[in-house]
Design a protein that fits this description.
By secondary structure, the protein is mainly alpha-helical. It contains five helices and no strands. The chain is elongated and about 65 Å long.
Length: 86
Amino acid sequence: MVVMYLWNAIITAVLGLSVITFWQAIGILVLSKILFGGFRGRHGHHNFHGNGREMREKWMHPTPEEREKMKSEWRGRCGQPTVKPE
């Protein structure tokens, strides 16, 4: 029902398309899941990355070189000049 309401409220006004029914909305939802997301379960994404333990460990305990690299990258993203240690 959410797809139907959003479509009818937004798409019809923006693109001038016709209003859709409940079953058409279900069809759009299924089609979008097939094309963009698939029907993986809740754990499908996590299993692909080995449940994130390695990444979590890397973020929690970076090496001094990794820590300095992250600081440098964030300084550059925030508009601060990068400062190299002497």
